[in-house]
């Protein structure tokens, strides 16, 4: 039996005195796409940040490719092969598109997969090739989102944490991002998504976890999606 790409057991996390996560259990297999659903404030983004040690105190177990990461610093966790694309994207205004893309150093060579070359990235994101000399903030919202993901792919990360990547984008860009996720899954990447856009996430994910008040309250396979519609409506209003 293969080792999961991500295995979270009994995860608690705090911001200062605020106890946000209350015993989260979650598992993602190698090459799976898993979506975290939930209302705003349910703890989904905190879960993503806690995986990388970006919250305050955290307790429990977070195993990445079989390695326990609780107690590790964030940069050491990243070198286990984790790439995080936060909701705010983090594009540097003073750098060109290509300079933003080249900024993060590659991860350790022990990480499976050596990262995408610039040629591979520009094949996947032709818009970035056209805009490679443009300042980062002159890119459209969709282009900035593509750049934020492409920057991770170049590092060699193979476990991608994507937080609300479709938010506020035009439908044509959302469709392009869906094609990107499908292509990455075909290449063997493991992807965990936080998404409010249920229509975007539904056809892409293999499995779904639903969060409420810092806990996992529902977990089901994509094949069960139709049968879970009433439950999802109660929990999410969708």
Structure description:
The structure is a single chain. This protein has nine helices and ten strands. The chain is an alpha/beta fold and 238 residues long. The strands form two sheets. A six-stranded mixed beta sheet has the order 6-7-8-3-9-10, sandwiched between helices. A hairpin with a 2-residue loop joins strand 9 and strand 10. The N and C termini lie far apart (36 Å).
Task: Give a quick set of tags describing it.
9 helices, alpha/beta, globular, 238 residues, 6-stranded mixed β-sheet, 10 strands
Q: What order do the helices and strands come in, and which of them pair?
A:
Layout: E1 6-15, E2 18-28, E3 33-37, H1 44-51, E4 58-64, E5 67-68, H2 74-78, E6 82-85, H3 97-102, H4 118-124, H5 126-130, H6 141-155, E7 159-163, H7 171-186, E8 190-194, H8 198-201, E9 207-212, E10 215-221, H9 229-236
Parallel strand pairs: 3-8, 3-9, 6-7, 7-8
Antiparallel strand pairs: 1-2, 1-4, 4-5, 9-10
């Amino acid at each position: 039996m293969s080792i999961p790409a991500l295995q979270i057991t009994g995860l608690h996390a705090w911001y200062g005195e605020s106890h946000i996560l209350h015993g989260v259990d979650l598992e993602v297999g190698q090459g799976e796409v898993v979506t975290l659903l939930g209302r705003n404030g349910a703890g989904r983004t905190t879960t993503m940040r806690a995986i990388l040690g970006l919250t305050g105190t955290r307790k429990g177990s977070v195993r990445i490719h079989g390695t326990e990461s609780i107690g590790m610093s964030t940069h050491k966790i990243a070198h286990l092969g984790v790439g995080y694309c936060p909701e705010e994207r983090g594009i540097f205004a003073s750098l060109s598109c290509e300079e933003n893309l080249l900024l993060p150093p590659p991860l350790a060579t022990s990480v499976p997969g050596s990262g995408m070359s610039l040629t591979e990235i520009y094949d996947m994101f032709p818009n970035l090739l056209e805009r490679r000399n443009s300042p980062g903030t002159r890119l459209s919202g969709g282009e900035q989102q593509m750049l934020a993901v492409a920057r991770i792919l170049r590092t060699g990360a193979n476990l991608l944490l994507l937080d609300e990547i479709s938010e506020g984008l035009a439908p044509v860009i959302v469709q392009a991002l869906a094609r990107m996720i499908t292509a990455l899954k075909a290449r063997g990447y493991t992807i965990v998504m936080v998404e409010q856009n249920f229509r975007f996430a539904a056809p892409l994910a293999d499995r779904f976890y639903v969060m409420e008040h810092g806990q996992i309250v529902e977990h089901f396979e994509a094949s069960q999606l139709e049968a879970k519609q009433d439950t999802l409506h109660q929990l999410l209003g969708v």
